[in-house]
Structures are given as C-alpha cells and as structure tokens.
Amino acid sequence: MDKEILFITNTPPLKGKIKQRYSDFIVEEVTREGICEVQRYNKPLEKRNFEKMRIPEKPENKEHLILEMEKINTDTNTAIALISRGINTSKKRIGYAGLKDKRGITAQRISIYQPDIKKIENFGVKGIELRNPKWGERIELGELQGNNFTITIRDISETKEEIEKIVQQFVFECGGGIPNYFGNQRFGGKRQITHRVGKLLLLQDFKSAIELYLTETYEEEKPNLKNARINLAKTMDYSKALKEFPFEARTERAILNHLVQHPNDYANAFSVLPKKMRYLFTHAYQSYLFNKMIKERIKILGKKALTPQEGDILEEGEVTALLPGYESEFAKGIQGEIEQKILQEENMELKNFKVDRIAEISSQGSRKKISLKPQNMYLDKIGEDEFNEGKKYATIKFYLTKGNYATTIMQELIKEEIF
C-alpha cells in the first residue's frame, strides 16, 4: 500500500497495539443463515469442547456437507488446503463465501462436496475446528452479508476517561463515513507484493511477475523461506530452489515445479495456482489504484472529499471511485480527472486489464464506494492490560458489510498504518 495515509476524523490518535494476541482480533461471518460465532479458540483449554463430531445422515437430494470452520492464526486458503489433504479430497470440492484474516480467530461456514464421512469425523489439525454439520447447497464466493468484528487494542497509555472520550467521539464521526481504503492484507500483508505482481501480469511481463513473487522478502519472514528466496534471486536455479523452499510455501513450490518441468513457461506457471487465488493479483492492483484515488481526492477536497461533487458517479447516494477494467468509464468532473491522472502516473491504460493469455486475471472493472460506515459500533470494555504493565486495553465491536476491512477502521482510530 502507498505509505502515505490520509485520515479524515478529528479525534486524537488512540495509540496502542493491534493484534498483539490472536484473541485480540475476532471475526465472525454473517450470512443469511445467521452469525457463525467463534466458540473455541477464544476460550482457555479446559473450557473447550472436545466431543467428536457426528455427521447426520445425508438426504437423497443433498450432496454438500455444510460445516462451521473456526481457525486461529491460519489464513483461509491454507485452512482449505489443510482440510483438503486431511480428508483426501480436491480443494475444488470445498466452497466458502470469503477470505478471513490470518492473524486472529475467525469463524465461517464452508461446504464440502460428497465428503468421506469417516475422514470428516476424524479430522484433526491444530488451529482448525470443524463443527455443526448439516447437509445443504454449495457455498459460493461472495455469499456472505458481512462480518462482525471484536477488536482489542492493547498497550494504551490514556486513562479510562480519555479512552471513552476518544472512542465515543470516533464512533460519532464514523457515522458520517471515513475513507474506505483497502487494508494491507489485500496487498500481501507485510510482504506488500500482491498488487505489484498484479501490475506486471496485466502488463504481460510474466517473467518479472514470477521472479518478484518468488524472490521478494520482508524483514520478519521465516529464515528458511527468506534464505530460499535470497538464494533463488542470486541463481535463478529453479531446480535447486525447489529443494530449498520449505514445504509450507505451497504456492511457490507449485510454480517452481512447473518451471522445472516447463522452463521459461512463465505465463502458464501462474495457472498452477487455484483460480480463486489467480485473480487476487488483479484485484490487489485495482485496490491499490482505488486507494491512491481516495488519497488524491482528500488532498484536493479535504473534509469534503466524501461528499458528492459535480460529475461524481453515485451508488446509493454515496460517491464511488474506479476499480479499473477494460470496459470502465471514467467519472466526470474532479473525480474523473483524478481517475485518469492515477492511471497516467502508473503508465497504465484501461485496455491493459484484458489479458488474453491468462483470461482469469482480466477484469471488466467496477466501482466502489469511497466512504465506509461501520454499523453497530460501540466500546465494549476497558481494562488493565495484563500483557503490558501499567497500560490499558480497550475492546471495540462493530459490523462491516462484505468487501470492507476492519483494519481500515482501526487505522483511522489509531492514526497509523496497520499490517
């Protein structure tokens, strides 16, 4: 993400630590079936349920087993891969509505097509619980309404009264909306690479995209993986790299394996990744451009940035910005000028978003509201922080509709970037 973040609320920063502990970031998926609640990993070991799951008898007209999946410190793609291997079924048979954060405790529903009942009942992987089985229809990506968030900020120096005053004022100001930035997890978290790879793919520089994806490191990366990336950057020896990259680097190993078998076939190397993952690269680059457009609008319009101006394209009365694609049309007025300026700065054209060689990374384009308004937001509790002596913690709860980021809310509250 562009390092410069522009905030719009007037509250002083509530400085503290976000996601210091996994239980500080709880996400509960909301669908038409209701709330999928976190019930296990937020409890001490002695209070967790260890009863073996029993699968009900399958009705004749139902082929998909619906389960609640609760996970801790595991991203959704990794969890699905672990379940796939654990029950010996294809990942394509597993459906889910949305991706959830890695660092935290999250609960969501998944579906599995014609699973082996015994293997499901005996499934056991550290950090993942499957429960509440029933038979139903496949869960497709996007079939959620939103998510409930319970977020604890730690290491706060302010007094209880100061915390209450800041949060109450912040909740009030959020009612008018805050900049709807995409969160850093959209761009690969601390590695900040997904959007950069996406741009190279759209420019059809497949070799550079592959090399960047395989070799880019970040400071806190695990030493064995970091060293493997560094060695590959020096040698570009894919056979040697395949031996050095650790087993948990599944996507990198899949790409390396393809390149060992098909040297220089960089375009098709990305095709070994799951389809849902492949188009995330384009989405990440579109999101990066969207964030730049919001920042440019705030620079020009200041506090009026989120209110409609002449030439804006509105959705439900709210201003939108461009997620560029090959069929996109620019807004008029100031917003249209911003959208064209950002693409020019990036040396990109709308036609670049159509890639015939990897059709699934192409995008027609769309628009997204630039204002984010959390619902049912309130300060749940304040207490003495047992993990940071002499400091306090504050727990905040709120609901966001799908496609929006809790870290965007937290960044605006603490007035600094969150990875």
From TrEMBL:
Active site (catalytic residues): D101 (nucleophile)
Entry GO MF terms: RNA binding; tRNA pseudouridine(13) synthase activity
Keyword presence, tRNA processing: yes
Q: Which GO terms describe its biological process?
A: tRNA pseudouridine synthesis
Q: Which keywords label this protein?
A: Isomerase, tRNA processing
> Which PROSITE patterns does the entry mention?
TRUD (PS50984), UPF0024 (PS01268)
Q: Which reaction does it catalyse?
A: uridine(13) in tRNA = pseudouridine(13) in tRNA
| EC number(s) reported in the record | 5.4.99.27
Under the heading SUPFAM superfamilies, the entry gives:
Pseudouridine synthase (SSF55120)
Q: Where is the TRUD domain?
A: 177-372
Q: What class of enzyme is it?
A: isomerase
Task: State the family it belongs to.
Answer: Belongs to the pseudouridine synthase TruD family.
The record's NCBIfam families line, in alphabetical order, gives: tRNA_TruD_broad
Give the protein's biological function: Could be responsible for synthesis of pseudouridine from uracil-13 in transfer RNAs.
Task: Output this protein's name.
Answer: Probable tRNA pseudouridine synthase D
Q: What organism is the protein native to?
A: Candidatus Iainarchaeum sp
Q: What is the lineage of its organism?
A: Archaea, Candidatus Iainarchaeota, Candidatus Iainarchaeia, Candidatus Iainarchaeales, Candidatus Iainarchaeaceae
